[in-house]
UniProtKB/TrEMBL annotation:
UniProt cofactor(s): Zn(2+)
Organism from which the protein derives: Mya arenaria (Soft-shell clam)
CDD domains: MPP_ASMase
Subcellular location: Secreted
Assigned protein family: Belongs to the acid sphingomyelinase family.
Name under which the protein is recorded: ASM3B-like protein
Primary site of residence: secreted
Keyword terms, alphabetized: Glycoprotein, Hydrolase, Metal-binding, Secreted, Signal, Zinc
Signal peptide location: none
Record domain Sphingomyelin phosphodiesterase C-terminal: where: 266-409
Domain Calcineurin-like phosphoesterase: start-end pairs: 33-253
Length: 411
């Protein structure tokens, strides 16, 4: 950027107007935004450790523990850290789940609101001149539930908290009704912040929300009811020409999926890893792999909304705890890692095809970053796991996904 600018300044008087016009037309209008999600702030981290899977963590780390949700220090330093890496962003996407994984008996309407309020205040402090587009997560409602009721008190209260960011009085009804809204990022480009509802205008849209449609893999679990999932996918397919990208959270892992209309890739849904390092341990024995806090910087085309690159940052929890100093480290640039010029849907289709070789470097990279640490997991994704992951990347609705699962793995 800098050398180019100097060149233009130096030749200021020598170049005809046409030169500048050409620069204006040729140079992509590139912008950046941060996407952070799933803080799951455990307000009891230093006392009762309510989120810590029933464990007694005798030496909880300064910035968190992999069995627990985020202490305030992680919430605060992670947001401060975004500003240190890149303060000049067009906006910040914050896709929900601020409330920790603790039972409803330890929460209340007022406490949930307070948690969202305090993180909002922090965001405002660290990004005072930047719009933050926030959405609800399934944990933010009280009682925590995937399908928040209509017209709840929490919608009305949260609207007051996020009002200055939304900055458009015409959205108050949408927000009160269902916790969703739409904002114009600039002429021709719009963001739709979803809760469980959505609607469209003729602008190009970036869709942001918490719970994604499709299947999380390798678990092969669908979050939405079959009917709602199908409806969601149908709407995206019907409006794919105006949808630039979808950015979601909820899964806590780094992933994506493609919407196909027949054989044609028409839209990409990117899933950002969580800030919380919390991992679950189910009574049946299933244990989630350990993962680090993450945040991503997204490079996009301001005119078309098209995704140009993702710079995925992470914090190695053991290291930052040892150093007593929180820092975001660049994990990867998606275009560099996958060898594509941008993250357009055509490029992402090529990425998916390159992942179909389970022993190839592309799939190994996908597996390495799934847990936001860049390391080979102890339990590598075997042939069956690879098969399930590929089905999840390509098929978002019940029948094709199940057909893919039960199709021979060719191994
Ligand atoms: C947790 O462990 C600490 C140190 O080992 C011990 O002092 C404390 O009593 C334990 N608390 C519970 C609730 O087990
Ligand atoms: C939220 O912020 C207020 C004001 O700083 C503070 O009094 C309160 O304790 C915070 N809430 C929690 C759960 O820490
Ligand atoms: C939320 O505000 C609207 C006014 O926009 C009001 O009609 C509705 O009753 C309020 N809902 C609750 C649950 O307070
Ligand atoms: Zn979450
Ligand atoms: Zn969630």
């Amino acid at each position: 950027m800098l050398p180019e600018r100097r060149f233009v300044e130096k030749s200021d008087k020598m170049r005809p107007l046409l030169f500048y016009l050409l620069i204006g037309i040729c140079a992509a209008d590139e912008g950046w935004f941060w996407h952070v999600t799933d803080f799951h702030w455990d307000f009891s981290y230093w006392t009762d450790q309510l989120s810590c899977n029933g464990m007694n963590i005798s030496k909880p780390g300064a910035f968190g523990n992999q069995w627990c949700d985020s202490p305030w220090s992680l919430v605060e330093e992670s947001i401060k850290g975004l500003r240190l890496v890149q303060p000049n962003v067009d906006f910040v996407l914050w896709t929900g789940d601020t409330v920790p994984h603790v039972s409803d008996s330890h929460l209340s309407n007022d406490l949930n609101k307070e948690l969202v309020m305090n993180v909002t205040t922090l965001m405002e402090r660290e990004f005072p001149n930047t719009k933050v587009y926030a959405t609800f997560g399934n944990h933010d409602n009280y009682p925590s539930n995937l399908f928040t009721p209509h017209n709840s008190d929490i919608y009305n209260a949260t609207y007051m908290i996020w009002k200055t960011w939304i900055d458009d009085n015409s959205q108050v009804d949408n927000f009160h009704k269902g916790g969703y809204y739409t904002v114009k990022i600039r002429d021709g480009l719009r963001l739709v912040a979803m809760n469980s509802n959505m609607y469209y205008t003729k602008d190009t849209v970036i869709l942001a929300g918490h719970v994604p449609p499709g299947y999380t893999t390798p678990r092969a679990v669908r979050w939405m009811t079959k009917t709602f999932n199908q409806k969601f996918v149908d709407i995206v397919l019907r409006h794919s020409s105006t949808i630039a990208a979808l950015h979601f959270g909820h899964e806590h892992h780094d992933s994506f999926r493609i919407f196909y209309d027949g054989e044609v890739a028409v839209a990409t849904l990117f899933i950002a890893p969580s800030v919380t390092p919390w991992r679950y341990q189910l009574p049946g024995g299933e244990v989630e792999p350990a993962h680090n806090p993450g945040a991503r910087l997204v490079k996009y085309d301001r005119q078309t909304g098209k995704t140009l690159d993702i710079l995925q940052y992470y914090a190695d929890l053991d290291t930052v705890n040892l150093d007593q100093q929180f820092v975001w480290t660049l994990g990867y640039s998606a275009t560099a890692m996958y060898g594509v010029p941008d993250l357009s849907v055509d490029s992402m289709h090529k990425v998916v095809n390159s992942l179909s070789d389970g022993s190839g470097s592309e799939f190994q990279n996908y597996v390495k970053w799934y847990n936001t640490n860049g390391k080979n997991p102890a339990d590598l994704c075997n042939a069956l796991c690879h098969h399930v992951v590929m089905c999840g990347l390509r098929y978002m609705t019940e029948k094709p996904f199940q057909q893919c699962l039960h199709h021979s793995t060719h191994t």
